[in-house]
Amino acid sequence: MKHLAGISIDVDPIHTHLQGYGIPNAGLTARPVYERGIARALELLSQNETAATFFFVANDVKAFPHIVRDTVAAGHEIACHSATHQLPFDLSSPERRKLEILDSKKLLEDIAGAEIVGFRAPSWDLSSELLDALAEYGYLYDASSYPSWTALALRLIVRLKSSARAPKVSLPPLNNCWAQAEPHRLSVNQHRIVEIPVSSSRWLRLPYYHTMRFLMPQPLFNSVQRSTLGRKSSVNYILHGVDFIDSSDPGVPADIRRHPGMDWEIDDKLKAISASLQAMSACRRLANLRTVAEELLAEHDEG
Ligand SMILES: [Zn+2]
């Protein structure tokens, strides 16, 4: 049987990216990503006959419940990307832990009318506190691990691009950079959780997710893609809401032009996403992340 390629989209509003660059007061800019970006994503996924996972920030969806329901109706998985997308992601008190991990799950379940089993931390801020909370609140999988040294390098670049004196972007612990690269099972306080890391190439561990299409020269991106798809395990290809946004869409602030891909025309951006989906579907089955987690557990139970 062919291995899977899990496809997911982090529905981050534009102000979230701006916060990362130290521009905290951009106003609320969820509308372009929700109203333009998701519509384009649903159409493109349908053209490519692909079911994906959409990671929603619970506080943002309150204004757009119909868009979450459209996403469910189109056959996609809804998963949780925290309640507030706070950076750095703080779970230090029981109140914050409940708000970000449990209340967000319940709110998304009410709106989506479906069980929420997957979580991705803002800015991939994986911690033992996070895994403990996910186990306690009954999640099936986490998709927050970024096991590549480039996570550290990229955060440093964001800090350099940042205009604020106090950077909002935290640096990942060094041991995360060489954590297990393939999806795997964890036992957390006797609960079973599947960890689905950001995919990376073999040996050099260059990351394989869509932002890299804008940061790497195309021959390098193609080589990372070939190497990653050569892994004998499922991969996890991540897109973001802004990958479906044109800088001329209504309500898009000019400051976001510093973000990778925001100098591309929307037609070229959509073609690049389709090209990645086609490269993956040539050798793998495209799926949502819940399917990746469930197949991994089923294989484990058989073996
Ligand atoms: Zn995010």
Q: Report the CATH architecture.
A: Alpha-Beta Barrel
Q: How many β-strand stretches? A: 9
Order of helices and strands: EHHEHHEHEHEHEEHHEHEH
Average pLDDT rating: 93
Fold topology:
Layout: E1 4-11, H1 14-20, H2 30-47, E2 53-56, H3 58-61, H4 65-73, E3 77-80, H5 94-112, E4 118-119, H6 128-136, E5 141-142, H7 150-161, E6 184-188, E7 191-195, H8 212-215, H9 218-229, E8 235-240, H10 266-281, E9 285-287, H11 289-302
The structure holds zinc ion.
Account of the 3D structure:
By secondary structure, the chain is of the alpha/beta class. It has one domain (4-302): TIM Barrel, CATH 3.20.20.370. It is built from eleven helices and nine strands. It has helices at residues 14-20, 30-47, 58-61, 65-73, 94-112, 128-136, 150-161, 212-215, 218-229, 266-281, 289-302, and strands spanning 4-11, 53-56, 77-80, 118-119, 141-142, 184-188, 191-195, 235-240, 285-287. The strands form two sheets. Strands 1, 2, 3, 8 and 9 form a five-stranded parallel beta sheet that branches. Strands 4-5-7-6 form a four-stranded mixed beta sheet. α6 links the parallel β4 (118-119) and β5. The structure holds zinc ion. Zinc ion is lined by residues 10, 12, 16, 81, 85, 122.
Task: Describe the structure concisely for a colleague.
The chain is of the alpha/beta class. The protein has helices at residues 14-20, 30-47, 58-61, 65-73, 94-112, 128-136, 150-161, 212-215, 218-229, 266-281, 289-302; strands at 4-11, 53-56, 77-80, 118-119, 141-142, 184-188, 191-195, 235-240, 285-287.
